[in-house]
Amino acid sequence: MKKLIVLATLALSPVFSAQEMVDKPVQSYQTAQYQARKKAFVDNLLSKMTLDEKIGQMNLPTSGDFTTGMAQSSDIGKKVEQGLVGGLFNIKGADKIKAVQKVAVEKSRLKIPMIFGMDVIHGYETTFPIPLGLAASWDMNLVQQSARVAAREAAFDGINWTFSPMVDISREPRWGRVSEGSGEDPYLGSEISKNMVYGYQGKDLANGTNILACVKHFALYGAGESGRDYNTVDMSHVRMFNEYFPPYKAAVDAGVASVMASFNEVDGVPATGNRWLQTEVLRNQWKFKGFVVTDYTGINEMVDHGMGDLQQVSALALKAGVDMDMVGEGFLTTLKKSLSEGKVTQAEIDMAARRILEAKYDLGLFDNPYKHGDAKLAAKEVYNLENRNIARSVAAQSMVLLKNENQVLPLKKSGTVAVIGPLVNNSMNMAGTWSVATKHSASVNLMQGLQANYGKDVKFLSAKGANIDYDAKLEEIYAAHGKKTDRDSRSKEELLKEAVDVANKADVIVLAIGESAEMSGESSSRSEITIPQSQVDLLNELKKTGKPIAMILFTGRPLALTNVKDMPDAILNAWFPGSEAGNAIADVIFGKVNPSGKLPMTFPRSLGQVPIYYNAKNTGRPLDQKLTDKCEYQRFRSNYMDECNTPLYAFGYGLSYTRFNYSDISISNANPKGNQTVQASVTVTNSGNYDGAEVVQLYIRDMVGSITRPVKELKGFQKIFLKKGESKKVTFDITPESLKFYNGDLKYDWESGEFDIMIGTSSDEVKHSKINWTK
Ligand code: BGC
């Protein structure tokens, strides 16, 4: 088995060597003979299967109470024996999984192995930053590698299918699930989507350490009205194809093995029962060859959507193109009847069963059903130091420096530091949401990280300062899934006093505030996206001490920080950094790692601006740029009387301890024709006092179109490392591919005309150049 190369340092160089990075879909490594063998095998198997057994393959229960000892006696155990279960999820541990597989391959009539799924979202036991944080690294090597480590750990523990990547574009910070995705941009989202799939699936799905990926939630789940989870979606097809579909399509192009349907409706039909989506777009247009699974009880929920009774909606889902039913047993309990009544066809059932059997074949399960899961290997390979070091490096690369006045950061490695905040001693909340397999109690919290790395030279004092929220009931909701916030029973005044006393003894304050882990994630929509008042009051009190404040922000979503941003000298957005949180934060705030993260989602000034995103349309009455920059109101232009048009922190924004200067753009050809390639280059110079990494971003604006076009769109980025004083020329190759969009007829093409080429450090700080491209 190939070992990953681990970085000894935390520098930027890719952790994968070139040959280990995957850049092709796993299917492209499969020969025609392999495909023929697979087809023959599955044809033969299907010919032996009863109707019940076929429908059984399409059934995906959650393990519930299924444990080793109960394998034979539990309800699921019986169903496995009867061949009525295709896969199982939420079961953890190599031995437990083996016991279930044994029932399937020894007791069921046709001995068909099962697949074992889990939400391995940002790591397995070794946990990486939440996906929104990972996206902020803009480092595709790290993205792919985090998925690779997650796949290996999960596979050693018996899992061979993950419900990831989640690629739902969202412009809605109220929606808690923005934490699980890559933010607002279709280009960045697509790059991440593809690299996650490559990381999970590798080159060979049957090698025992690669696992099936499942891109979700198809489609448009991030566009629910008012940011309320599971809510209605309604949007134009032009917007779907140009702005929301690309990351799903990128996963399909990368050969993703499975797709999960979303809970929301699309064009008035729930995605789970939407034939246009699951068959016309996904299979006919995008040529998806894998299987579609519903989300948790997605079929049953169509009853509440108002689409009919369970039999009706189950038939609707099958006919739409769904192959596997997660948890709800709609298929299991109604499809036979629907077939006898002519409401579904045998061919539709056969096709769904076939797709699931093909995935099992690709995993090599018919050769060896036990290849994923080896308790001895798992003990050695899961959550080992090697993986934790990678997680630490990734976490440090994902942090975004939002503000750093008076060079408060990096901190001096001497003196006394007051470490204050409701979560500074809380390991349970470091991994963030969707951390099913995380070893929470072992996660390095902030105090532990600081003490372990700098405790010899620096005196650290700590205080809680405030509870997460004044409202105890709300805080209980915020502490879901066992992620206790350790609410302090002392009064607000007592907590504040202790914090101020501690601060007064220190040279500098490190104040960690923001959200607890489960304030974002599924079913965690918020109607306010500010830091809770208890913590704002804490910041206010500490400000009065006059000590410099470096604020560490824990958050799973963009927050409106307007009411707090002026108080701290520095703000470092740490997201939820994962298993190595405390170590990674220590690395960044003491300067071992120079922050290089850039925001993958806009931070608004206030909730009233939402949705606010960089790739917006110009409108017919745009506010004059100078007034926009000065935040001045103009009547009869598109703006607010009481708020600026600009966000607090734009997409692509993020500071460094050093400074990067950009030269003007040089263009190889300002009047290209047809399929030519144009080089757009800038020279970037590190003119500050630290070595550091910079994400150089390319944006393009199509000045005139047959439909209105965004004011800019990300079309490329390169993360470069520059030593202090060093300069590098960064070149982007631009081809007509970068200019294409879905037009009013949903035809994907480009149009001749003028293009504004922008390169810069952030979506709102770019150099400009023009080209005129004719067909
Ligand atoms: C979520 C999915 C997840 C599934 C299985 C659902 O509630 O929406 O993202 O994969 O549960 O745990």
TrEMBL record:
Task: From the UniProt annotation, give the residues forming the signal peptide.
Answer: 1-18
State the Gene Ontology terms under molecular function.
beta-glucosidase activity
PROSITE patterns with a match to the protein in the record: GLYCOSYL_HYDROL_F3
Question: Where, subcellularly, is it found?
Answer: Periplasm
Q: Which reaction does it catalyse?
A: Hydrolysis of terminal, non-reducing beta-D-glucosyl residues with release of beta-D-glucose
Q: Which UniProt keywords apply?
A: Glycosidase, Hydrolase, Periplasm, Signal
Q: What is its EC number?
A: 3.2.1.21
Which InterPro entries does this one have? Answer: Cellulose_Degrad_GH3, Fn3-like, GH, Glyco_hydro_3_AS, Glyco_hydro_3_C, Glyco_hydro_3_C_sf, Glyco_hydro_3_N, Glyco_hydro_3_N_sf
Quote the protein name from its UniProt record.
Periplasmic beta-glucosidase
